[in-house]
Design goal:
Chains A, B: This is FAD-binding protein. Two copies of one chain form a homodimer. The first copy, chain A, contains 16 helices and 19 strands. By secondary structure, chain A is of the alpha+beta class. In chain A, strand 5 and strand 6 form a beta hairpin.
Chain lengths: ~475, ~475
């Protein structure tokens, strides 16, 4: 399976970083989806020079590479296909610089997101992107998938913080794009091209991130609804009122039940849905006023109670409950198909209703949660991938959810990426001509097609939602 | 000069929109730089379908096209080279939709920026990007150059507000990319590729922009300094203090003299430099507190006075003075070479000193102003392009300024684009390999090279800063 001499060539580059034993490889064959593809080989460089050398070897031998950070992604982006070897960046985990004066951090791709956040917050700075996986996921993966998070509502997604990238192109050439300035229009925006490209255009080896001053005050409020439609309306109404919350998160009844089964206590399990609101700023009086205004709007739209977390610990409990959803769902049923549709604000209530109708029609449990403030919902279809009859219904439901999102003026993916999970629906969303243009760009950057094959682009003739 | 049949073919598409008379063409041959190249022909479509048809004709005949909105750019991006015909979008000037619910505006490329701002503000919304040319420039040009403005410090540049684009590809195929959602990671970020591409990849025919709630309170303060280095230090110190002003603008003594000669009164002409600070928000007490904190930091860094504008009219007078700089400079000397370097925050004081030293060394007047808060400075070299001896010094000074910016970790252009003016310095900034990658992307999108030739990419062997 592995070409002769490949292992030796890679061991010359990274003597202690080439894995070939089956028990080592298995850990590099999956991500947060239900896909599993054990790679033939894993290589773990520590330096950009080693990444370049690995790329040159892969190019010379026409061997596909799948870059991988922590493998916590939710679209299959890091799952190695078509015999790809895995290029893991977990050893490139150094924070190279935090500059208070320039408001930037320079990091290697393997730095854990929460670790970076803690470091910069200790210096009075703030790195806002907060994917729910932040304690497991790394910046390199966040950039590759252009990850979002709850605070994206106020602060934007990972890509909004990427000032510069060092990228190793497929043939092993390292380039730098962007810089340490917040404004830069010098030529084409390569930063944004590589951000969210899911490792299909090159391997990211260094990232310069914009940092903000840390907000001095944070508040969290919980609003409880007897009808999910009211919760959705309340979210839209808060934004229409000109309040700028840091986050608005939706959890429906089934989602709450799943995390309660997993040990999270204190949630109103008799409610149809809850909203968790975050607000932050530098002035206690203003943040309190914002939270009060949010509460008033929520009550006017049918919230039966609105409670404000009394202290940071109570607030953190709510956010930890929110972040525990993905692992909790995985325990209720053997598998889950997590979606990431994003619809315009005015269509959130309609999308929520469509997901519920689709769940009923296809007789599936679909817990619904997500960043409802920016229209980014995560219906998760619970399933058992060993059951072909159920999986046929799952595929039909997934298609129906995508079609509903696109019909409502939305998109397939707000923050997880396309990867393997949604590639067959790309044309439905972006159209034939834009997809063809993406293919031309892919071919221009990666003419041999060695970077993370099988991702983003649909396979010919495959209407199949997902290859198990 | 014009190929036979071309005029007839274009008149079939746009019967009343093909200009060929010399007196009509001359107005389409320049922008805000000193370049002039009268095009052989101008075509003024009103619809996307007409733009597609024009592209198809240009493709079939291998005729280069230069898209143009209002031609107020500052890098030569809209100046037609190499026999390009001008595709002017000034007739495509409709605001198609303003949605309060979704927080978006959908516009054609010829909509004047200030016009859109007034419309959305009347609905309680806010479109932050504010290039100084906002009363003359159009959204299409702003997107093509990824324009900034004073408020970019707090709110980001044009590209941060582009949710979706309709673009006509070189061969006449229209595509849509992005949507009405604030999050979208469905495939490669084509929006960001076309934003700032200066018309070299296609013609933008429709733009969906993100809108924010309009801040309820705005304040402006003026700080006066006897030494420009203190002003630069004060700007950095305000940001380091964690205050988030909407804008920090620098005007040096010579800049003030130029606008005073042009009728602006009330500026402290005996000072070495001034800073104009903007602050905004929803709470009067907070904005007042921010302005007070800014004033305290400025005084601690050597401001001899700090005054807060008493009302909106006084505030608007200061901002109008700021916006009058470019036209005023053009009256002091026959020409100006306006630069747009951007350096990391911590290097602003050093960059200011370098510009002054370069002016002295090359015996040139270089008024210095700009968005100092985000490190984006506009040294403008005053000159007379008919004087070859002076122009040789101008070229040397321009190169020295670029080299200083790059040496300090900065970039050639923060918000004006590269166009024609800075293309010979591209390699100095982005490096050989990233430039080669940009060329490959250009070739993938525009294989015949018909879109806005002569822009962004340096000409072989030309060390020459600018072809007059």
């Amino acid at each position: 399976m592995i070409a002769a001499g490949l292992i030796d060539a890679l061991r010359e580059v990274v003597p202690d970083g080439v894995l070939t034993a089956a028990e080592d490889l298995i850990a590099y064959g999956f991500d947060g989806t239900f896909y599993e593809r054990t790679p033939p080989l894993v290589v773990l460089p520590s330096t950009t020079a080693q990444v370049c050398a690995i790329h040159r070897i892969a190019t010379a031998r026409r061997i596909p590479l799948t870059p991988r950070a922590m493998g916590s992604g939710l679209s299959g982006g890091a799952v190695p296909l078509d015999g790809s070897i895995v290029l893991g960046v977990s050893r490139m985990d150094r924070v190279l610089e935090i500059s208070v004066d320039d408001g930037v951090a320079v990091v290697q791709p393997g730095v854990i997101t929460a670790h970076l956040q803690a470091l910069v917050e200790a210096r009075g700075l703030f790195y806002p992107p907060d994917p729910s996986s932040l304690k497991q996921s790394a910046i390199g993966g966040n950039v590759a998938e252009n990850a979002g998070g709850a605070r994206a509502l106020k602060y934007g997604v990972t890509g909004d913080y990427v000032l510069a990238l060092e990228v190793v192109l497929p043939d092993g050439t390292p380039i730098r794009t962007g810089g340490r300035t917040v404004k830069n229009v010098t030529g084409y925006d390569l930063r944004r091209l590589f951000t969210g490209a899911e490792g299909t255009l090159g391997t990211i080896t260094e990232i310069t991130l914009k940092l903000l001053p840390k907000p001095r005050v944070k508040r969290t409020a919980l609003a409880v609804f007897d009808r999910i439609a009211d919760a959705a309306d309340a979210s839209t109404a808060v934004l229409a009122a000109g309040i700028a919350p840091a986050a608005i998160e939706l959890l429906d009844a089934l989602t709450m039940r799943c995390i309660a089964e997993n040990g999270v206590t204190g949630l109103p399990l008799d409610a149809d849905a809850i909203l968790i609101f975050g607000a932050d700023g530098n002035h206690e009086s203003v943040v309190n006023e914002d939270i009060a205004a949010i509460g008033a709007v929520a009550r006017a739209h049918g919230a039966r109670t609105v409670t404000v977390a009394g202290d940071d610990a109570e607030s953190e409990r709510l956010w930890n409950a929110r972040r525990s959803i993905s692992p909790a769902l995985a325990r209720r049923r053997p598998n889950k198909l997590g979606e990431d549709v994003c619809v315009p604000r005015s269509k959130v209530t309609a999308m929520v209703a469509r997901v519920r109708a689709i769940a009923a029609e296809h007789r599936l449990e679909i817990p619904l949660f997500g960043h409802i403030g920016d229209g980014n919902l995560h219906p998760n279809i619970l399933c058992d991938k060993r059951d072909p009859e159920e999986m046929a219904r799952v595929a039909a439901a997934a298609r129906a959810i995508f079609e509903a999102a696109v019909e409502l003026g939305g998109t397939l993916s707000g923050e997880h990426g396309i990867g393997l999970l949604k590639k067959q629906f790309m044309e439905l969303d972006v159209g034939t001509d834009a997809l063809a243009l993406m293919r031309r760009i892919k071919a221009a950057v990666d003419p041999l097609g060695i970077m993370n094959p099988g991702k983003i682009f649909p396979e010919p003739g495959g209407a199949d939602a997902f290859r198990l």
